[in-house]
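Researcher: Next sequence.
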Amino acid sequence: MTQLSRRSLLSSSALAACALPLPALARPAQGPAAANLFIGTGGHGHTYPGPTLPFGMVQLGPDTDVERWDACSGYHRTDTSIMGFSHTHLSGTGIGDMLDVLVVPTRGPVKLLPGTLAAPETGYRQRFTDEVVEPGYYAVTLQSGVRSELTVTERTGWHRHRFPQGPGHILVDLSHLIHDSSDNPPLITDATLAIEPDGSLSGGRTVHRWAKGRRIYFAMQASRAPDRITLYGDDDAEQPAGTRAVAGKRLKAVLHYDDAGASPILLRCGISGVDVAGARRNLAAEATHWDFDRTRQAAQERWAGHLAAVQVTGGTVDQRTIMASALYHAQLAPTLFSDVDGRTVGLDRKVHQLPAGERAYSTYSTWDTYRALHPLLTLIAPDRVRSLVGDLIRQTQQSAYGPPVWPLQGVETGTMMGWHSLPILAEAQAKGIPGDYAAAWPAIAKRSFDWSAPDLDNSKGRDLYDAMGYVPADKWNESVSRTQEYAYDDWAAAHLARAAGQTAAAERLRKRSGNWRNVIDGRIGFARPRFADGSWWTPYDPIQLGHMPKPWWRDYTEANGWQATFLNQHDVYGLIAQMGGDATFEAKLDALFTAPSTLPDNAPPDISGLVGQYAHGNEPDQHAPYLYAYVGAPWKTQAMVRRLCTEMYRNDPDGIIGNDDCGQMSAWFVLSALGFYPVDPVEAVYVFGSPLFERATVRLGGGRTLTVEAPGNGPDTPYIRAVRWNGKPWTKSWIRHGDLARGGTLTFLMGAQPNRAFGRAKADRPPSNGHMAG
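Model: Next structure:
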């Protein structure tokens, strides 16, 4: 298929395909496959190919564009020129930021502006060839003849630039950042650049892009002292010779080498969110030598250990490559945000000293990642989850807005709906991850019950939600999704309240978590905008984004009525009853996957990867294929999950059907390819799908191993015939996290035809809202 038809026309015969054997793919081959870091750098994946460490602070890599949506990460595989190499990037987000401390190695006349994609020669952009991308390493040959190599430690970026013989220079551009048509200048303030007494370069800036007011600092050393350094102030004004420091908004420095090609020029750059002194300390601690290859080897060994967390055999070479790549992308964020001395910037914009051994993090895309990424980490990285839990509790205490939703480098952006750090905390608590959960309760209670507490866009209408049972569509935009998202956060908060000994509050929150019912019109079986007088929006059309009284107004968050109808994750049996029972709900799910893939002209690009009206390229209904298990038809889940694993992911730059969203799309693949998925992470159970491989070993915490077997599994065997757990028959269509986390062997017996009896009995269906079916 073409890219266009892949994104918009995958819906044909969706459920017909469920009942038939899937088309044959390449014959399965054995052996490991390396990650392909170009997956997601094309299409709308918004990933970047540069080196970082797992959950590292530095994400060093090439930037090819800063002005269009598909360059949110600063890089797109279709671009033909590179602007330079910056030290921070976002992976898979739908909004751009970062790209701090751009380094441009080149020759010829000094150019201080980048030029354009169409005419790179008008600026310092360079065409390029021979990219090499591996976990922890990137290399490329630039048009100037410079061969550039990059690697990292956690808090430092390392460069090795090999120039041709003759003069050359390295531009450091502090004015470089993502642009957006909605931005209001100035986007950079309080920038500084200084030449230190030891010849190193340091500085910082405040950025007002997405995370408005975030601060970033750096300290950079060169292995060879430049022959001279030129500093530039605002409006690219060259500073007088001998100037050692400059301040302003858009600053630059040029390191000049009369014979740049005499030997490789290495750069080591430490960064910090606290101050220049922190950047220097990070550099001193993590850059104790000038051996680039030693640093590269250490980075690659670190990645080898993390990528060994899941190892598979069977499937195709491409599928094993996709698995390794998805596991890589699922371990990029949240990103480290504390210095080696334990200092960090909290969501109160103040500097905090962490207790010994603890870490702070940034880049929590919680609206996306609570669904699959954080559940995956509870299996493969429980110690990391413990660290993240401690950090989220601290951020909840520090923030004026309570539980975070999308914090980025010390700034709560308020992006997306709800305060979905709570499901992450509640899931961890339910799974036995240690943490001082009670310490977060006062801030959770304030967000849940105090209507005078300040709000960002993500939490508007809380008071009406509490008083009326829903957010009215004529009072706040995205009202249907707000109601549903707030209800899920109430469900999570109820668990945390109970853990904190707040029984009355827990019961109030549990009851309020049923508010989702007030925006599901059971008469028509759809999520429907509702106004303050209690009336429903008419005439209703589930394809539309809502009643749209203003051009930007939507009643759903990155969804339409079809997708929002199945958003409920925590009370599936309540939703089934609201829709009219098992048969009606099953038919409605069938209709979701077979409806025409029609979207309105004003639909956001996030709604992508359509199968009928199911949108795999965006998060609201990514659990929907697994809902068949709750009506006793898990064979339909098995067929659809196998289809999504094979059609929505490819070993190609355009290999992720939507934004990877800080690893959520990738984590969905990892879990689904293993054969199970958390419909409601807070319930701490996994619903079976369709394993993709013949065998997988999952390295759990504490030296334990989970083995997932599917003997003889292939492209024509998507259906589960039977399940065994540690050699004993298992009739349920689900399993608890606690069972898997102890380690053992989960065996799927697969077949070409469905076993409709498996998981059919109500006693074998997954729990939801704390109880079983029936």
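Model: Residues 1-29 have pLDDT under 50 and may be disordered. Residues 479-499 form the longest helix (21 residues).
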